[in-house]
Amino acid sequence: MKTRDLYAATGLTVAAMLLSGTAFAASKAQIDMGVRHALTQFQELNPKHEMLENKAAGILVFPRVTKGGVGIAGEHGEGVLQVKGQTVGYYSVSSASVGLTLGVARHKEIIMFMTQEALDKFTNSKGWSAGADTGIAVVSKGAGGDYDTQTLQKPILGFVFGEKGLIADASLAGSKINKIDK
Question: Can you give the pLDDT at residue 23?
Fold first, then answer.
């Protein structure tokens, strides 16, 4: 088998596996446990995160997002929306892309809705796209980095952290978030 054909077959296999996330769907208990762990890790990365959590109108937490592929890539994860520390719904995040992707990796994502208006816009949507919302600020340097006052004025803050694996792309761009029944 030619190298090109091997890459194509591997890419299609990985993308199909990731995009068929329902076959690997986690239970509520598994998601809830992952969310608790992700929030603890997030707070340990930067003491200012707890202050942001307390100010946020709502927080989406995806404790495990897996992305992988060879040329064709897929991403999938499940998490919760919390309002005032209480889970109000379960959500999935997914994306697909074609390009120079090679590898498999996992990371955690936290999206904070800093205003009630931003939270309402999210909860009233049928499938929210992180890349399409111009009000989102993805905090650089991972979740442990500092952020400036201009960043803190954005209505939505996004954090990607806890990267494990070998892949060059860990971002929120193009991610589609949908409510799921659990």
Answer: 44
